[in-house]
């Protein structure tokens, strides 16, 4: 690992792999378990080569039984280990939902504070390349609903590189969402790893005219939209929620109090979503700062279609973000 | 009323009935109704206004005698005289 | 208390702009009174009320866009209900005995002066309060006329630069009535016609029937009638046609109504009469209760309504009430009209021009003035047999003009 702070170019996938490698090197209690993470190198090739590097005790292939291996991960965490459990995609996590919601999230409470469950569960979310409905959904809102969990969303390469490390220091269960659609995206980041604060949302671009609040794949799309909007003279602020539970109200409200307008962009379905919650909190906590109704741009409420053009049409895209912001600011009906 | 006054009065009345037309563009032998797209309803309104303006009474069977600007002006000239 | 909501002025209307309130809270209104002017695609329309009572709070602000069905104001319909208003109860407790004996007079007094509901962003309201700006005097530039921060900041600026002077509004703007240029609506009317006709062709399975009518009797009767009249009292053939349609509808009521979850027959016969605009497009004002009117009364109604239709100055009931449509294209070379029904109505009667044709009757051939009448009807509501009965009745009535 370089410590001299030079700029390096790497993919989102590589950033995650480096984070896992760092974690394994830093703490011998850390191990990775999941379907095909070892010999196959991970369904999305994130852990490729790690088996050779760390051996089968620390890169552990598991049977195709989400409920079984997530339960085993929770057990290992209770037993003092620091497991990183990889669930291939959020779609399959529903098979392990009982373990997560009824065990990982509740044990601290039900044991009167005696049993921490320091498990980190990583899973891919959102669209890939035409993987169709059963492999492409965005179920962050389901997890963000549950007290006892911390829910993180990796929207940038910096976060991909370092968020896991902070998550592993947390004494309680942390769910990390990574994004299939972002794995191949290359970005320049500093080779010097900056710690990620997993209690705070992050302003990715400062602006005065409107707060665009987003997470996950929405972050880069929104940043692109903000660049385009600046050409039209609109100075948008881009806020990456990063923590979906518990929401960082302070940062959200500070941004809205500055810009007085808010648009929330997310790939998940609109009804009962992260954006529903953010919108409600803004109205509750920040009503007298609002100069326009809070607007949302979310996934179309259909099972994710297979054809490429319909897949693209089902989730927010840069042009839509630009258009809706212009509407809000130019006072047209939205 | 001299010829010019009659003409101006006719234009004025036509403008009232059909404000979005330009009677000034009418040629002497143009069919007024066709040229200005005046339907039977508007035409009746015009006759009513015309009768009032010139103090005359145009019977229905004379409608055929007043189809162009020229013939209308002649008709008014004659009837205005006979009715004083 | 009744809620007064934005009326639908035709199947194609989604919303209108409230341009002017003609009443204020506390005003007494009767059925048919005009309470507001609303701008629609079809011009500025006078909005009528259908209840008697006292106007309550004006919920909608002038120049707001108002979707159909939106609450606009309240009408306190009976004395008893008015008394429920707490303000009035307080007033009454102060009344002398004499005043109490005249409750009707009291009812005509203003009940209370409720504050307009002001559409403004929460931030704009907060800043206005902080800076001492009367938000009701600020013109909103936000969505649907909402007052936003920018508007308040402008108002603050104006207050600072002219601290002791009220800024007079531009005189012309205040005095001039809203001017309606027919041209400016041409495009809107085109779109309104496009929307209604598209819907009609999409939704309504039309069937078409036609027949020819010997117009000798009708025209003779009309010529005779007009001979005895001065030009201002003369009748047009359209009056006979409307009257004959109304009579035929009395005989065959199934064609007089709306298709709304099934056929809703209408008791009253309000005929929508197609008026073409020279600038393009059509306006279809309703001629009310045609069956109850004499030809002379009908002619008076047409003389009133057609110029107003052309000037886009109609009343709400005239745009919304039609139970059937009549179109007459008799002025050009057209003989036969295949009409498109105006939803939610279920029929349209089309009259072509009157032309001289060879006509065989009682084994004799002669030349007669002949008119083609068509019926376009909604096959969901009626079948050809009903249409046949209607056209047969219509033909019969046109042959007996003296009874119309």
Automatic annotation (TrEMBL), chain A:
GO MF: oxidoreductase activity
Cofactor dependence: thiamine diphosphate
InterPro entries in alphabetical order: THDP-binding, Transketo_C/PFOR_II, Transketolase-like_Pyr-bd, Transketolase_C
Glycoprotein listed as a keyword: no
A Pfam cross-reference name: Transketolase_C
UniProtKB keywords: Oxidoreductase, Pyruvate, Thiamine pyrophosphate
Listed PANTHER family: PYRUVATE DEHYDROGENASE E1 COMPONENT BETA SUBUNIT (PTHR43257), PYRUVATE DEHYDROGENASE E1 COMPONENT SUBUNIT BETA (PTHR43257:SF2)
Highest taxon of source: Bacteria
UniProt organism field: Fulvivirga imtechensis AK7
Stretches assigned to the Transketolase-like pyrimidine-binding domain: 10-185
Protein name: Pyruvate dehydrogenase E1 component beta subunit
From TrEMBL, chain B:
Pfam families on file: PP-binding
Domain (Carrier) ranges: 1-80
Protein name per Swiss-Prot or TrEMBL: Carrier domain-containing protein
Originating species: Fulvivirga imtechensis AK7
